[in-house]
Amino acid sequence: MRTEDPLHVRLLRLLRDEGAASRAELGDRLEMPRPRLLAELDRLVALGYVSEAGLAASRGGRRSTLVELSPHLRFAAVDLGASSMDVEVVNGRLEPVAAYAEPADIRSGPKLILQRVNELLDKAKVDGAYERLDAVGIGVPGPVSFRDGVPVSPPIMPGWDRFPVRELLTREHGCPAVVDNDVNIMAIGERHGGVAHSVDDFLFVKIGTGIGCGIYLSGEVYRGTDGCAGDIGHIQVDSHGPMCSCGNVGCLEALFSGAALAKDATVAARAGVSPALAERLAANGTVTALDVAEGAVEGDVTCIQLIRDGGRRVGGVLAGLVSFTNPSMIVIGGGLAQLGHILLAEIRSVVYRRSLPLATGNLPVVLSELGPRAGVAGAAVLASDVAFGEAS
């Protein structure tokens, strides 16, 4: 919790993260004079953010009254991927009260995608999940101007450049909205309720259709001047490598991502060097990253090697980042995290071997604890933060 935040934001976050508390407990936690705290609580009750929650357990003497976030608070959380969307409505404690997940092609453009998001949120309203939304948080798979609430030149999102996502959602739902990069919201979710809980300096690496990195420094997401910090998928790792979606050659993402792995697996299946992949290609007509993961579990040597090659490339990029930022943890998430411990072991091996010993002496490299929920969890945190900021 950041000391520079206004009292009302710190108070609302405390109730969000810790649950109902007595006025005395809140005063102790916030180190706030009781008259000022009571005045702020009265104001937040009047605004509908806080309500009374019954009596605290007796500790001898008069039982104190608990306060909590209003049970009517609702935030929408949206995680858009290259090929999927996850939409949740959560309460003030960020617990889901409605959830939807479905395939979606981000290349179909902002109007169609956001229309579908709105349809799912309308369905949640009809089903009784909320009467009104207090804020909307959304993550998209490309660079974002966090200040302006728009995607900026996203390589895999044709038609989205400078599209007014925040403005459209604000207008549609009559509440504040916030837009961020998908890997940033995953990092925020993992810090709030996952394996990186309360870790102030860590890297969250999303390996999926693309590759990106959420950067936490001193307890804050570092987005960079223009919102594109952490776009590690477009770091060149092979000057003679394949063409990337960004127009350059040999980017990490072009060599190891969901699409790149499926392409390499198809080549291996057709060449007959992988019985597991050849069998799946014959049965389904295509092979996917999931087929590689299953083949590796079965002991297929080619599948294991494909995963190790990818892990080596990711590890090489992360080794440079570790020497540069000296994080206290690296979290691996995204769809290709399902490749599991073969991938993780290779990344660890390269990072530990190629980074400075001082930077890796106590550096856990771990899989995401929240898995596919990391994005919506982070979008919910962002939505609540923007709503709490409005309570002034």
Walk me through this protein's architecture.
By secondary structure, this protein is an alpha/beta fold. The chain has three domains: 7-69, Winged helix-like DNA-binding domain superfamily/Winged helix DNA-binding domain (Arc Repressor Mutant, subunit A, Orthogonal Bundle), CATH 1.10.10; 75-190 and 373-390, ATPase, nucleotide binding domain (Nucleotidyltransferase, domain 5, 2-Layer Sandwich); 199-368, ATPase, nucleotide binding domain (Nucleotidyltransferase, domain 5), CATH 3.30.420. It contains 14 helices and 15 strands. It has helices spanning 7-18, 23-30, 34-47, 110-126, 165-173, 182-193, 252-255, 258-271, 275-284, 289-297, 301-325, 340-354, 357-360, 374-390, and strands at 21-22, 50-55, 65-69, 75-80, 84-90, 96-103, 135-140, 144-145, 150-151, 177-181, 202-207, 211-217, 220-221, 329-333, 365-367. It has a five-stranded mixed beta sheet with strand order 6-5-4-7-10. The protein has a five-stranded mixed beta sheet with strand order 13-12-11-14-15, sandwiched between helices. Helix 8 (258-271) crosses helix 9. The longest helix has 25 residues, at 301-325. The radius of gyration is 23 Å and the shape is globular. The mean pLDDT is 93.
Keywords:
alpha/beta, five-stranded mixed sheet, Arc Repressor Mutant, subunit A, 392 residues, Nucleotidyltransferase, domain 5, 14 helices, 43% helix, 3 domains
Give a quick precis of the structure.
By secondary structure, this protein is of the alpha/beta class. It is 43% helix and 18% strand. The chain has a five-stranded mixed β-sheet. A five-stranded mixed β-sheet has the order 13-12-11-14-15, with helices on both faces.
